[in-house]
Amino acid sequence: MVGGFLFILVQLILIIDLAHSWSQSWLLRAEDGNTKCWYAALVICTFLLYAASIIAIVFMYIYYTKSNECVHNKVFISLNLIFCVIISIVSILPKVQDAQPHSGLLQASIITLYTMYVTWSAMANVPEQNCNPTLLAIATNTTSASSSTSAQWWDAPSIVGLAIYIICTLFISLRSSNNQQVNKLMLTEESSGDMSGPTMEDGGVYRAYDNEEDSVSYSYSFFHFCLVLASLYIMMTLTNWYL
């Protein structure tokens, strides 16, 4: 479980990088093409993501806080809602915009939706059945006591978690990030133009530059450690080990 939790943090970094790359790409296209279509697309996507987050919050408040005993669920939903509002406000502050011109509500909306998923996944694995109705009980509007208490590997949180994992894996596999921290994390750092190639000395003789004379510019051990965390996360998700 500890390894799975650590990989969730790594996955969060990848999601933030994905959101930043998405926003940066569309903003650059809007600026280069001098068209408002990309701006409109950003606004629509941001609105849809926030709408999905609001629906998730309402859904959790309705079905996971029915009983008066579900105090923990109410607290976690409320705290995460407050934190999401705070990060949304911070993302559009002038100082943040000056430091990161391509930051904005799109990144905050993706993190908000991901936070709501993590909250739902946590509450969907609460042992108390009166605070944890199954999807079948919600759909049929019956009590959770009538549903089976046995865990199933194909439950909805596990499926969504695997989907997010696959998306993050495809993203980091198909793209070399410009974010230095993410590059070091996933071993995708691109050498800069003045350091990767040979340099010309006096007399027209080229001299190769070795930027790894003392040590490599990345950590193989840390990269494989992340792979171990990913394996633990998949194992935890497929086996419902957190139950």
Automatic annotation (TrEMBL):
Its main location: membrane. Keywords: Membrane, Signal, Transmembrane, Transmembrane helix. It is a multi-pass membrane protein. It comes from the Eukaryota. GO terms for cellular component: membrane. The chain crosses the membrane at residues 37-63, 75-93, 156-174, 222-242. It is found in: Membrane. This is Serine incorporator 1. It comes from Hymenochirus boettgeri. The lineage of its organism: Eukaryota, Metazoa, Chordata, Craniata, Vertebrata.
